[in-house]
User: What shape does this take?
Amino acid sequence: MQRSLFVLLLTCVALLAHSNASAGCDKAIEAPASLYMQKVIVLGELHGTKEIPRFVEQLTCQFLALGKAVTVALELPSTEQASLDEFMQSRGADTDRKKMLSTRFWSKTLRFGTNSEAVADLIAALRQRKFDGQKVELLAFDFVPSTPPRNNRTIRDRPRFI
Assistant: This one.
């Protein structure tokens, strides 16, 4: 089986249109058939929306319905990976979710949009699919600078590795 990789990056892209529900997914996404043959799909987004995490959840569902293994890579600090792995292996109880959300990254004082409730809901949906036996993995890929950027130039010029 092919492993498909979704990566959310800080850029703007147009959303694909939604259509009727199919294959056990809430909504089917109208897309060219060639999309489902890709090994890597890169999606850009504006941080803080509810629509993009929901779109990624729906697209992931469609790939899983086709029997494909999927890795969803989110722009979250790589330091969150252990917490995400623990949550993905959990039963998804409220205490499990609260534990995942207890790190500094998810605190309400640090709001970047990447740590939104919608992203947490996406992670919970991916955990449920994995718990149900589907082949889905979660990867946090953003690096954590040792000190906060001082200005927009620093943010713009910092390297990004995928």
In short: Residues 51-65 form the longest helix (15 residues). DSSP finds five helices and four strands in the chain. The helical segments are 51-65, 81-89, 94-100, 117-131, 152-157. Residues 35 and 162 are 20 Å apart (CA to CA).
